[in-house]
Automatic annotation (TrEMBL), chain A:
It is found in: Cell inner membrane; Cell membrane. Keywords: Cell inner membrane, Cell membrane, Membrane, Transmembrane, Transmembrane helix, Transport. It comes from Gemmobacter aquatilis. GO terms for cellular component: ATP-binding cassette (ABC) transporter complex. This is Amino acid ABC transporter membrane protein 1, PAAT family (TC 3.A.1.3.-). It comes from the Bacteria. GO terms for molecular function: transmembrane transporter activity. Belongs to the binding-protein-dependent transport system permease family. HisMQ subfamily. It is a multi-pass membrane protein. Residues 32-231 form the ABC transmembrane type-1 domain. The chain crosses the membrane at residues 35-56, 68-89, 109-127, 160-180, 208-232. NCBIfam families: HEQRo_perm_3TM (TIGR01726).
UniProtKB/TrEMBL annotation, chain B:
Gene3D superfamilies: P-loop containing nucleotide triphosphate hydrolases. InterPro entries: AAA+_ATPase, ABC_ATPase_HisP-typ, ABC_transporter-like_ATP-bd, ABC_transporter-like_CS, MetN_ABC_transporter-like, P-loop_NTPase. It holds the Pfam family ABC_tran. SMART domains: AAA. One of its GO terms (cellular component) is plasma membrane. It is a peripheral membrane protein. Residues 18-259 form the ABC transporter domain. It comes from the Bacteria. It is found in: Cell membrane. The lineage of its organism: Bacteria, Pseudomonadati, Pseudomonadota, Alphaproteobacteria, Rhodobacterales. One of its GO terms (molecular function) is ATP hydrolysis activity. This is Amino acid ABC transporter ATP-binding protein, PAAT family. Belongs to the ABC transporter superfamily. PANTHER family: AMINO ACID IMPORT ATP-BINDING PROTEIN, L-CYSTINE IMPORT ATP-BINDING PROTEIN TCYN.
Length: 247, 263
């Protein structure tokens, strides 16, 4: 172990970042991949929760609205790190208690599934508010026109309300996506091998802290610039049919 | 049918398209409609006139349940709308089906801004009425040509003038092949120079015998196209009759005053 560390210390930064050993590039990229998968899953789950939550808050009965208010208030009030610890350990624990109670063996919940579920629930609370605001921005007359033509509610939501609110929702959703990519770093506390966790391991082993954390920072930056480009294109598409503020 | 020319008997009355009986509507404590009864037979052009706040829009919106009546009965094409005791529709599917048979045209056009004009026209025929797409497109193109918008099929609504948007909205309603049309002040949001082109389209529809209920402030036009005129005042039908009578020889003082005030 110490021999390996000594060798690594002697090597230049670039050698350390090489894809195959003694470089740690493969580990970093695997971490990045895991981060992206979790962020993608959490963002997707969060958006689904957000759509349901927004429609529930706007059109649901009093009980639905109260439950959703509790959900968005609590999740947005408690620090995400605390939520992750609560949800991860509490959920793992209670699932296992339940399993043992029914006479099954305990299971190891996959870090990936737990990460997506936990971050998705957090994202869902914010997405509910982003989408609720976006739905309110849709001109009421256009929804009424669809109703007046006999469109059933689910079809109306899918074909009229959702596409119309998208241009107003995308800037907020783009923020949530970036937050999702960075929140994956919080999963390091439950030992999940995402980018920050892999970076810490590489840095701790080689003592090349500066090199590895700079490399991780650069990877997060590339991810954010790439997604910025994709969201800009999405937004342009969602704005089709609108007359621009600038010609 | 072939004997009609030689048969001296009067034709049987045309079937009823829309019948409203004792329609009442309150918003909270505000009593907006106080018992309206009105029948539009097939081919009728019923013009509804009246001062601002008299309940014209509310009445029209109750016909397709965009507003929930407080009480009364509504019958569309001989089919009574199933209502609960509080006036709310008892059967959502029935409401949707009846709405598909009533083409509503709004003051503010309300075209869907994320769809081209052609997409606006075929949206409900294709996705709700399940008309094959090619057939819906052919029908839409025919209707756009008819309202003078053939070359705007691929344009988004925001890039059309108000008059063009309203003509497209009329074509969108027609594309569902409705039993009757409901117009709520279709020209009130338009610049004066654009009113004529929209009225020309409505005149054309009236001439081909389309059933319609038309809420309007255009008295000259109402007199010209209507087969029956209804004057609403304060949520009641104050006076009604053929246009020559209502405009030419108004009986009530209120109607006389109203006609004077609108010129
Ligand atoms: N959703 C609503 N909530 C409360 N009051 C309403 C609502 N809609 C209409 N009203 C009231 O009902 C009355 C009749 O309104 P309505 O829109 O039917 O009048 P109108 O005859 O169409 O008038 P206008 O010529 O100005 O369009 C008005 O006093 C209006 O303020
Ligand atoms: Mg009105």
């Amino acid at each position: 172990m110490s021999a390996l560390a000594g060798a690594a210390l002697a090597a230049s930064s670039l050698d350390l970042l090489q894809y195959s050993p003694p470089g740690w590039g493969a580990n970093l990229l695997r971490g990045l991949m895991n981060s992206i998968i979790i962020a993608f899953g959490a963002f997707g789950l969060g958006s689904l929760i957000g759509v349901a939550g927004a429609f529930g808050k706007l059109y649901g009965g009093p009980v639905t609205r109260d439950l959703l208010a509790i959900y968005t208030t609590v999740v947005r009030a408690v620090p995400e790190l605390v939520l992750i610890l609560i949800l991860y350990y509490a959920v793992t624990d209670s699932v296992n208690r339940l399993l043992i109670g029914f006479g099954f063996d305990r299971i190891q919940i996959s870090g990936l599934a737990a990460g997506i579920a936990v971050l998705g629930v957090v994202q869902g609370a914010y997405a509910t508010e982003v989408l609720r605001g976006a739905i309110l921005s849709v001109p009421a007359g256009q929804i009424e026109a669809a109703r007046a033509m006999g469109m059933p509610p689910a079809l109306l939501a899918r074909r009229i309300t959702l596409p119309l609110m998208l241009s107003a929702a995308l800037p907020g959703l783009a923020n949530l996506w970036l937050i999702a990519t960075k929140d994956t770093a919080l999963l390091a506390v439950v030992g999940f091998g995402e980018l920050t966790q892999e970076t810490r391991q590489a840095a701790g082993t080689t003592k090349a802290y500066f090199t590895f954390f700079m490399a991780a920072g650069a990877l997060y930056l590339v991810l954010s610039i790439g997604s910025g480009w994709i969201f800009a294109r999405l937004e342009r598409w969602a704005r089709r049919g609108q007359r621009g503020v600038r010609g | 049918m072939t004997t009609a020319a030689t048969d001296p008997q009067p034709a049987p009355p045309r079937p009823e398209a829309i019948r409203i009986e004792g329609l009442q509507k309150s918003f909270g404590t505000l009593n907006v409609l106080k018992g309206i009864t009105l029948t539009a037979r097939e081919g009728d052009v019923v013009a509804v006139i009246g001062g601002s706040g008299s309940g014209k829009s509310t009445m029209l919106r109750c016909i397709n349940f965009l507003e929930t009546p407080s009480s009364g009965r509504i019958t569309i094409g001989g089919e009574p709308v199933a209502m609960r005791a509080d006036g709310s529709p008892a059967d959502r599917r029935q409401i949707e089906r009846l709405r598909q048979s009533l083409g509503m045209v709004f003051q503010q056009f309300n075209l869907w801004s994320h769809k081209t004009i052609l997409e606006n026209l075929i949206e409900v025929p294709v996705h709700v009425l399940r008309v094959p797409k090619a057939q819906a497109v052919a029908r839409a193109e025919r209707l756009l040509a008819r309202v003078g918008l053939a070359e705007k099929a691929g344009t988004y609504p925001a890039f059309l003038s108000g008059g063009q948007q309203q003509r497209a909205a009329i074509a969108r309603a027609l594309c569902m092949e409705p039993r009757a049309m409901l117009f709520d002040e279709p020209t009130s949001a338009l610049d004066p120079e654009l009113v004529g082109e929209v009225l020309a389209v409505i005149r054309d529809l009236a001439a081909e015998g389309r059933t319609m209920i038309l809420v309007t402030h255009e008295m000259k036009f109402a007199r010209e196209v209507a087969s029956h005129v209804v004057y609403l005042h304060n949520g009641r039908v104050e006076e009604e009759g053929p246009p020559e009578a209502v405009f030419g020889a108004p009986r009530s003082d209120r109607l006389k005053q109203f006609l004077k005030s609108v010129g």
